[in-house]
Amino acid sequence: MEMPIPDPAVVARKARLVERLAAVLPADAVIHDDAETRAYECDALTAYRCPPLVVVLPASTREVSEVLRICHDEGVPVVPRGSGTSLAGGALPTADCVLLGVARMTGVLEVDYPNRFVRVQAGRTNLSVSGAVEEEDFFYAPDPSSQLACAIAGNVAMNSGGAHCLKYGVTTNNLLGVTMVLMDGTVVELGGAHLDAGGLDLLGVVCGSEGQLGVVTEATLRILRKPEGARPVLMGFDSNEVAGACVADIIRAGILPVAIEFMDRPCIRACEAFAGAGYPDCEALLIVEVQGSDAEIDAQLARIMAIARTHDPVELRESESEEESARIWLGRKSAFGAMGQINDYMCLDGTIPVSSLPFVLKRIGEMSAEYGLDVANVFHAGDGNMHPLILFDANRPGDLETCEAFGAEILKLCVEVGGCLTGEHGVGIEKRDLMLHQYAGADLEAQMAVKDVFDPDWLLNPAKVFPLSVSDTRRTGRRTGRQTAA
Amino acid sequence: MEPRSEAELAEAVAGAAGPLRVVGGGTRPIGAPVAGDPLPVAGLAGVSLYEPGALTLVAAAGTPLAEVEQTLAVEGQRLGFEPMDHRPLLGRAGVPTIGGVAAANVSGPRRIQAGACRDSLLGVRFVDGRGAVLKNGGRVMKNVTGYDLVKLMAGAFGTLGVLTEVAFKVQAIPETEATLVATGLDAGEAVDRLSAALGSPYDITGAAHLGPGCGAPEARTVVRIEGLADSVRYRAGALKSALGGDWQVIGDEASAALWREVRDVAPFAAGDAPVWRVSVKPSDGPVLVAVLEQAGLAKRAILDWGGGLVWVEVDDDPGDGGAAAIRDELARLGGHATLVRGSDALRARVPVFQPEPAPLAAISAGLRAKFDPRGILNPGLMGRC
């Protein structure tokens, strides 16, 4: 993976930089010892590592502003970090950067049930936002798989979603406002507790900009009342095509489940071996969940089951109890762990039009044979967000490279059928160099022009999202060299 | 000059010698008046892709909204965000286009549950101020590939680029709907009730309060539920008990007609008094209305979005159409106000959109300079400096 060559002039100024940062932050909030900065050398994309020059852990918007003002002044790149759960290398440091972690900013600043919002500091974890409002039976809807650990800051940076976003949308649909610090230290408010933007929708473009436009320190989030109940149904089919057709028929029938999860045979087998959830041995498995009162759930599930029966399922199991619901979800929720037990794996994140599902699965199967690596597929079928898991052996020379090449082919296929490179993980460094497969050069220019306005010196998370070749001239002009990261 | 294709439109923009006024159906003359040659987009029309099983529709920007809605209705689907028709309020004829809906980020009462127009907008193609054809987003529900310029284009009123194609997420038309109606509540009580309804587990898709004189002598507070027939019956009953008080339940066409009235702000039609559209947090809706009433400014008010969207008709024009009073109050409450109806002179005189703090104004101006370096796309419409 190519990364820019660290700026030796910045590295040479480390002592002065540390001194200036220590003047505005508490002593334990500036980490510059080589052994300690190593703890921040990667995020959840652990294949690539590089300790940052300095780590800072500010506790307030004011402290973030001070840090950015100094870094701006010193011309030092800043890599913002939430909880470091990015699967795309969004928080991978460079050797000449200040890594700005928001993990100490976890407060709940305001809870307003009549107006249905909560205002939190951006380092607070996703699940603990729901935790802060559950006493009144409210919750925060976006539910990335990492929700126990991931920070709202990262959710905003990556526009995160999850299994239930078929009904509730992703972060951008549930984000009302942010307090954000621009690279020069200016603090701005975008949006608020009200709906929609007054002028240009700057909040809309900040959400999902991977920490490149500003550092979000506080977020105002829409909260929703929990539904009365939820119940899943498990369906097994003889082929991926039939399962795909069943998904389309459910959606066309006007029923809106909160989740439609799809697993293919390799994934079913692995999950079953790992979790023993009682899944049938079949080609494709769907978990469809609906919400509401008992009567509403009965009515919706009756329709869904009737649709499923027209597709000759090999298994059709409606949950009869809380325990059974938990078992139906158990296998799906264990999928990543199950695959990890079998082998090393690379988790992809492409999105396709739902109608292309059977074709894409067939092609992935063919490519699996060509590359000689097994693939298991698990994904959010309602919205076409696929997570092919490519199995490889990290200890076998060349396997990682083959796996990466195979992964890139799958993502290109997603784009070819009308989908996109990433549905929820983000571009980061992982998919940076594939961007030109989805967008023309002019389209990327338009996106980079937005960064030019927010961060004219390209100091915030500069080597992410855009292929280095297209961002070279913008990333300071004084540093256009590249090297291969370990 | 009436472009029939994206290429022709790009050529027209690239070759423009001066300012352009982008015209869709001409039904939403919102913003400061623009002096410029008309650039019609109605020649770019037609639904190019519709996948009911994937809940996705792609159409050229000039496609009439009615055509989009008819196409969807054949498959029992609709645009979830329930776009308002501005024609009654603004006294316009013409044909609303899907591109106009996106450019103005037009959302109706269901915004509280289904999200705004921008939340359903999956992808755009547009022509920037240099005449370059650009795209962003796509036609899938989840997409975090690069920056979300789709959101930026929604509500930019053609000042960053001329939309040529839009892709939308759509939803199924539910089996039935029902609306709970209470009469005679004051705005404060009404918003308390609406908040209680929206804080219930009964999945409310409309929550509004029409003040006295807004289509009926007495105030009406209305809450909508949609879905399968049995479910709607159950939730309407449960909600009625939960809210207490005297609620009448209306269904089917009566309910649909009522929500069209709310959606289009129909009680304010056929007039020329200035009308403001204000977005605040719901509990501040009645506060704002009370302040304007005390100042002798507000004639009538309709509160949608559970109280958070205030449509206020200003009776006594003090010269600025109430701009100073409304914006002073918003400085305290937070939120933003747009002058939707006003004479050309008034819209030229006062900032139609909420003035931004200096750092944000600089960013907005910076974005305009990048996307439209010659300053020819609807110049001044959103209050460009």
Automatic annotation (TrEMBL), chain A:
Where the record annotates domain FAD-binding PCMH-type, the positions are: 48-226
Q: Which residues form the signal peptide?
A: none
GO MF annotations, alphabetized: FAD binding; oxidoreductase activity
Q: Which cofactor does it need?
A: FAD
Keywords (alphabetical) are: FAD, Flavoprotein, Oxidoreductase
Does Flavoprotein show up as a keyword for this record?
Answer: yes
What SUPFAM superfamilies does its record include?
A: FAD-binding/transporter-associated domain-like, FAD-linked oxidases, C-terminal domain
Q: What is this protein called?
A: FAD-binding protein
Per its UniProt record, what PANTHER family does this chain match?
GLYCOLATE OXIDASE SUBUNIT GLCD
One Pfam assignment: FAD-oxidase_C
InterPro entries for the chain: FAD-bd_oxidored_4_C (IPR004113), FAD-bd_PCMH (IPR016166), FAD-bd_PCMH-like_sf (IPR036318), FAD-bd_PCMH_sub2 (IPR016169), FAD-linked_Oxase-like_C (IPR016164), FAD-linked_OxidoTrans_Type4 (IPR051914), Oxid_FAD_bind_N (IPR006094), Vanillyl_alc_oxidase_C-sub2 (IPR016171)
The source's domain of life comes to Bacteria
Is Magnesium tagged as a keyword?
no
From TrEMBL, chain B:
Keywords associated with the record:
FAD, Flavoprotein
InterPro entries per the UniProt record, alphabetical: FAD-bd_PCMH, FAD-bd_PCMH-like_sf, FAD-bd_PCMH_sub2, FAD-linked_Oxase-like_C, Oxid_FAD_bind_N
Checking SUPFAM superfamilies in the record gives:
FAD-binding/transporter-associated domain-like, FAD-linked oxidases, C-terminal domain
* FAD-binding PCMH-type domain residues: 1-173
Q: Is the keyword Iron-sulfur assigned to this protein?
A: no
Q: Which GO terms describe its molecular function?
A: catalytic activity; FAD binding
Name of this protein: FAD-binding protein
Q: Which organism is it from?
A: Pukyongiella litopenaei
